[in-house]
Design a protein that fits this description.
single chain, mainly alpha, four-stranded mixed β-sheet, about 60% helix, about 5% strand
Length: about 350
């Protein structure tokens, strides 16, 4: 991942946030996007001229795709300009905060019928639903039912951000009311009440083409099957996996696209090496395999063989160096009886004096 150069007019000695950003941009934006923009302002105030997408992702514990979504959103709001290199990677960010610019609103056509409004295609655009649009959508009986059911599941009143997120699933991702209800149901039943978590699941479903409850159930069952397989391989019983462990499994099967055979083998090696189930240790193994393009058990054998040959060569080289360094000692060593030598020396002295 290439470095990104930062450019802006008027570098600040302190991090100042103009009121126009708070009044016209921040209130309608996703909170995570706001954090990233504020961090960029901070970088500019420190006269820091370079960073990477992966660095920003690590700082905020996001994926690189999440960071890119945030940058794209702020570019649409005309608060920054992105530059790209020949590899189509972001190579420059020019911050710009026009004093009198108005944040562009999405779908503010006079005719606010659902079919005529410009469709929302990205999660950051969901933040730009106006109050008028929200009121219009909430007149839809299907939306009313989803909002009512969600509030009952959560046991609280939904805030505007929550409602915008649900409207995005309904209008932007074209999820049916039944599919949204199922999404919220399975998330809450598994202890995940965060809308940020639900949004990630929704985007995952949209990316994999899930459009019905049946599709979602099939995908959910497959995920549960993977979870149970890992628990069995680790010998875990009597407890549920925590969120970080489930997220790690999702990374193995999703981002890394590793087969369950490879995951089970990593679990086996983890138990063999540590004597206990350790997701961190197994993740180290699987990350290494992923970087080395391991796709099957045969690939592991090849990788292990290459590693053993490398270790053997290093050991042989070390042995040769040790042998070379001690060649002056390669002769029979004599042993001496110092008491006997001392007695011989005394006898010799006495003979000489006599």
């Amino acid at each position: 991942m290439s470095n990104i150069t930062l450019a802006g007019s008027g570098l600040l000695s302190s991090t100042c946030v103009p009121n126009i950003f708070i009044d016209k941009y921040m209130t309608a934006a996703n909170g995570e996007f706001v954090k990233i923009y504020l961090y960029l302002l901070r970088c500019m105030s420190q006269n820091r001229q370079a960073c990477t997408i992966s660095e920003l992702a690590d700082i905020f514990e996001h994926t690189e795709k999440d960071v890119l979504r945030a940058l794209t959103y702020w570019e649409k709001m005309q608060l920054l300009h992105l530059e790209y290199n020949a590899s189509h990677e972001v190579s420059g960010i020019a911050l710009n905060l026009p004093e009198h610019a108005a944040a562009p609103c999405i779908g503010q056509e006079e005719n606010t019928d659902k079919g005529s409004a410009r469709p929302i295609h990205t999660p950051e655009d969901a933040c730009a639903y106006t109050l008028e649009q929200m009121e219009h959508f909430q007149k839809d009986e299907a939306v009313q039912e989803v909002l009512f059911i969600t509030e009952n599941y959560l046991g609280r009143t939904l805030n505007p951000t929550d409602i915008r997120t649900i409207l995005y699933w309904y209008d932007g991702l074209h999820f049916s009311a039944d599919l949204i209800e199922y999404l919220i149901e399975i998330c809450i039943s598994n202890g995940h009440t965060s809308f940020r978590y639900m949004e990630k699941i929704a985007l995952s479903w949209a990316e994999t083409g899930i459009t019905s409850v049946e599709d979602a159930k099939r995908e959910h069952n497959m995920h549960q099957k993977d979870v149970y397989a890992v628990m069995k391989a680790f010998g875990i019983s009597g407890r549920n996996l925590i969120a970080s462990e489930l997220k790690t499994i999702q990374k193995w099967t999703g981002s890394y696209a590793l087969s369950m055979d490879l995951i089970k083998e990593a679990c086996r090696r983890t138990i063999q090496s540590t004597g206990k189930p350790s997701f961190e240790y197994a993740d180290t193994i699987l990350t290494s395999w992923h970087r080395n393009n391991v796709h099957s058990l045969n690939d592991i054998v090849k990788l292990d063989t290459a590693h053993q040959k490398s270790r053997a060569a290093a050991k042989s080289k070390d042995t040769a160096q040790r042998s070379s360094g001690s060649r002056f000692n390669n002769f029979p060593q004599r042993t001496y009886n110092y008491d006997q030598l001392e007695q011989q020396l005394l006898n010799s002295n006495c003979s000489a004096s006599g």
